[in-house]
# Entry
Amino acid sequence: MADNSENNAYWSANKRIIGISLVIWFICSFGFGILLRPMLAGIKIGGTDLGFWFAQQGSILVFLVLIFAYAAKMNKLDKEHGVDE
Amino acid sequence: MDQFTLNLIVVGATFALYIGIAIWARAGSTSEFYAAGRGVHPVLNGMATGADWMSAASFISMAGIISFGGYNTSAYLMGWTGGYVLLAMLLAPYLRKFGKFTVPEFIGDRFYSQTARTVAVICLIVASITYVIGQMTGVGVAFSRFLEVDKTTGLLIGAAIVFFYAVIGGMKGITYTQVAQYVVLIIAYTIPAIFISLQLTGNPIPPLGLFSDHVGTGEPILSTLNGMLQDLGFAEYTKQSDTTLNMFLFTMSLMIGTAGLPHVIVRFFTVPKVSDARSSAGWALVFIALLYLTAPAVAAMARVNLIDTFYPNGTSEAALSLAEIEAGVDNQGNRVDWVRNWETTGLLAFDDKNADGLIEYNASAENELTVNNDIITLANPEIANLPGWVIALVAAGGLAAALSTAAGLLMAIASAVSHDLIKSQLNPSISEKGELMAARIAMAVAIAVATYLGMNPPGFAAQTVALAFGLAAASIFPALMMGIFSKRINNKGAVAGMVAGLVVTIIYIFLHKGWFFITGTNSFTDADPLLLSIKSTSFGAVGALINFAVAFVVSNATDEPPAEIQELVESIRIPRGAGAAVDH
# Structure
């Protein structure tokens, strides 16, 4: 196993990626789907507004992209820090 | 061939498949029984997780709930999928690295406390049992409606099938049958949706159809639906009527509840590596999204079809008459036999109150039609006049959804009893063979209890889903997350946090739903709740917050965890070495 400072750097990098991902996660579901929906009301899509689309479809698509992007980024990070299997 | 024979053939074929898989996937060791030998491919595990997660509620009830609640029910769509982001980033990879068999085992080891482990076992068993009752009733309902056997017989057949593959195969048998069950349920869900989307919008992809134009009006289907609903006095489909606060907290509670449900978490113990646990969460969400992106389309389109059935000449014209229902065909020549077929099941009821010979469906007190949520999925193929084999598929799909979730829950209960209670506390010297036997007996007992409760569901069965999610959100998720992300949280903090989150959440639910769900003993209702506009179903997120806060304060006021625990936390954060746990 790599030394402690290497492991700490790996963990900090992981937490940074998680932090950014969860900000996007929050904005695209709780934000666009609920809290910010009135602000998106002007953008029309298929008989309703963009906020409705995010609440019923868009958020799920964003979640999918987020998980796979996280998995790919972490595979790279694992290798860089020599902690992959 | 009549519908009954068709249903029998399709359901019989799927059951034969599950039994075949069970015989092939027998478990020989505790590692195979608890974690499928940790050799499951991440994509297959994703599929199994999809079936494990999507219950009778997702398959049968969700589209109906959205259909009648519109935008306000988006919390189910976002909540039941967004939890997988939390699982993939905050829990699954590290718990896989930890490399043990159960969720309470992690809590017990990380917080070096048998009390913490026991609290986790109690939460797990209560959450899983309340959940499994719903699945067993779902099995009974599907059997009695499609195969014309009585509910008890149906339940016993379903229980026998689960018994066969869960007791023999353990997690290994359950995993591979869940893969097959996923395929059955997704086909059964998607085919009617494609037909309906084609009929209403000309678009064969339902999620795109939802935002396309209605072939009849030339307007977007959602505008058409909003117009129809307004004519009948209902709230517009796309409009928000719930408070923003409650919608926010309900979505959050469902998300962290999803991430904290033990039967879902343990699925990620079955893959070979930490990186597989991450990608497997992504695959699980792919397979779940196939249904969850289709559900809102089915919901809106089925509502249009429902209104079209009862207003064949448009919502400003006369409603469907009793004579037309009797004849099974309306004045436009469309078949409407499904109305009478489903009236006999009690899921649909009409009453010509003003005796004008017409069945008027609207939002006023003179409404003459009541429709159960579940009809949206179950009667969908008939409402759209689809062929008989599609109806048979829906029967098999509903059973697959209920059985796969029931098996996953029973597995979580059985391993908590055999591994966390018997092996860890009552008889630590038990041999592997003895533990395997204990696990099988625990599984058999859990199935018997679940079957009994399915036959005699407590009156509060439907209410307790809030309890399952509340417990998972308020106690299990925060404890797991703090155990991984903080080295400072100690045994006292974790136990205090779990108990505080749990107790406050249970009290809040009881205050609104009645003490121990006994009707009439509640002091508040969800329509007029104790705190602001927070309904009891949305309280899990608040409970989680209390758990985090209490654990933080108590831990910082008491001693740091011992050095070896801090090393354990360091080691689960690093992926390398998880493969070694394969032979654990």
Observations:
- The CA atoms of residues 352 and 359 of chain B lie 6 Å apart.
